[in-house]
Amino acid sequence: MRNRMEKLRVDADLPRKAVAKAIGITQRKYSYVETRSHQLTAELIIRLAKFYHVSADYLLGLTDAPRPRWILRR
Fold it and tell me: pTM for the whole thing?
């Protein structure tokens, strides 16, 4: 099963290079993060959550809901 970052990227039809550039890291570092061979920092979690428009909890696997409930109520 793919991790959530990879699934989000593939669903958005984006190459790793594009996501890496958008969040301000190298493609190599993004590849390490996506394949879980490099730990996520709080800063990267925030950048990724903003980029994909999902919650940090979703990226971390703490919830299966991509967006917090307060966002869905709008």
Answer: 0.83
